[in-house]
Design brief:
The protein is α+β, with helices and mostly antiparallel strands. It is built from ten helices and 21 strands. The termini are far apart.
């Protein structure tokens, strides 16, 4: 009997050992593949997240909510269509080049499939990174996802979901869940849901091609902000003759450095904005009407001064970091006035906060830009018109030398006229846009444009000592 009891105890120990081992394997399997769930949890696997969302062009608003773990705040970004105009509310309703991008995003959302069910346990949401960034009841600052909402006309919700972290071992998959559901899925998702201001706008400030820039003028001066007087240090006029650039007042034995000039033209061609600020209505109205400063209030003038722009006693608009002009073969002349430093990062730069103009808030890495455009009539004088139009009703065999000359003059005048008409239309379009905004450009762009004569005019190689 003692032997029997000993055998029984031994068998029980063996059973316990195997049971413990099975439990350990079960826990290990859970950690690898997720919690054990009932078969019903997989019933909707493979279905669309938003089966009623069929038309990507029906989306009129995209809202993305991200969570800042450092500040503990939810950060919204929205692109919406108001009365046929795409705007970005968080950036002073600046126009958004968003229709095509939003439609592409919407089409990607339509294709989201519940590829692989992972969990319906709320305690797993933090690890999956799908806690709603708007959930004020959640205590964790980590594990919050990006909430994406697409709406149609009248605010109807077309899609609403939370994108979490990457699925380990599956680089093209993310954890995704709907805000009103506990279930989390591993989803193959390839949608560029950008919350960057510059990704949603036409950031190309100058509608120019560097190969069509024929003149550049650098204005090197300083402004006495108290008296409004101007101290002109230099004015460098650079012109293109065939393929060679030259400068006015260039000493003998000096040339314009072709490489540095090419870098300047490239910087102008590729100039992008990184932020915007709305101009007061008084300034915008005056600029659109090409009016004098008499229409501007004291508040308007203070707005200009705070950004680094001033009117001289003669009524000229100047800036505390000089200016640059460029003229194109398309009969347009742009003026770029460089103002104060913009401080901070993120929305401090792109949209503006109190820290943007606070010198004590940190290092400045960007700068205000005041932009305007006009038709460069002085570079495109009107050619002579034909003395008469007798050539119009004659065949080539009957044309006299005078008729041929008049026809040639007429063709040249038509080319000039069409160039000027296109230039006026584009200048009006651009100035309507420029009049509304102070722009912000990067310090890197400013450094490439803030040049002096000594930066471009150099001694010839054989004349260097």
């Amino acid at each position: 009997m003692g032997a029997t009891m000993t055998a029984t105890v031994g068998n029980n120990k063996t059973t316990l050992i195997f049971s413990a081992g099975a439990l350990a394997l079960a826990v290990f399997a859970f950690l690898l593949s997720g919690p054990t769930v009932t078969p019903d949890a997989f019933l909707d696997q493979g279905e669309e997240f938003f089966p009623d969302f069929k038309d990507p062009n029906s989306a009129t608003t995209l809202e993305v909510i991200e969570y800042n773990e450092e500040t503990g705040e939810a950060k919204p970004f929205k692109v919406t269509n108001q009365d046929g105009i795409w705007t970005i509310p968080s950036h002073h309703n600046h126009p958004a080049d968003g229709k095509e991008r939003l439609a592409k995003t919407a089409a990607g959302v339509m294709g989201i499939i519940k590829d692989d069910f992972r969990t319906d346990n709320v305690s797993d949401h933090e690890q999956c990174g799908v806690i709603d960034p708007l959930d004020e009841t959640a205590l964790s600052l980590t594990g919050r996802g990006k909430r994406v909402t697409l709406k149609g006309p009248g605010g109807a919700i077309l899609a609403d979901f939370i994108v979490g972290g990457d699925v380990p071992g599956h680089p093209s998959f993310r954890f995704v869940r709907r805000p009103d559901e506990k279930r989390v899925y591993a989803v193959r998702i390839d949608i560029d849901i950008s919350t960057k201001f510059v990704d949603w706008i036409d950031d190309d400030l100058l509608v120019v091609d560097k190969d069509r820039i024929g003149q550049v003028i650098l204005h090197d001066y300083s402004v006495d902000e108290r008296s409004g007087s101007l101290n002109v240090r230099d004015r460098v006029k650079l012109g293109l003759n065939d393929t060679t650039w030259s400068a006015d007042n260039m000493p003998k034995g000096y040339i314009v450095d072709s490489g540095k000039m090419r870098n300047l033209l490239t910087a102008l061609d590729e100039l992008k904005i990184v932020g915007v600020r709305p101009k007061p209505e008084g300034i915008t109205a005056a600029l659109k009407q090409a009016d004098s400063t008499r229409r501007m209030s004291t508040a308007d003038l203070l707005s200009l001064q705070n950004k680094g722009f001033f009117f001289t006693r003669t009524g000229e608009l100047k800036s505390n970091e000089g200016e640059l002009e460029l003229a194109t073969d398309d009969a347009l002349r742009y003026t770029l006035r460089f103002g104060e430093v913009v401080y901070g990062a993120g929305e401090d730069v792109s949209a503006g906060t109190e820290a943007s103009d606070d010198k004590s808030s940190g290092t400045g890495a960007n700068r205000y830009l005041f932009l305007s455009c006009k038709v460069a009539n002085e570079n495109f004088p009107e050619p002579a018109k034909p003395a008469n139009r007798e050539f119009e009703n004659k065949t080539d065999s009957l044309l006299t030398d005078a008729d041929r000359k008049n026809r040639e003059l007429d063709n040249l005048h038509l080319v000039w006229e069409s160039t000027i008409i296109r230039a006026r239309e584009l200048a009006d379009e651009l100035n309507s846009r420029y009049a509304k905004w102070y722009y912000v450009i990067s310090s890197a762009s400013f450094e490439k444009l803030d040049l002096k004569r000594s930066d471009l005019v150099v001694a010839k190689a054989d004349d260097k000592s």
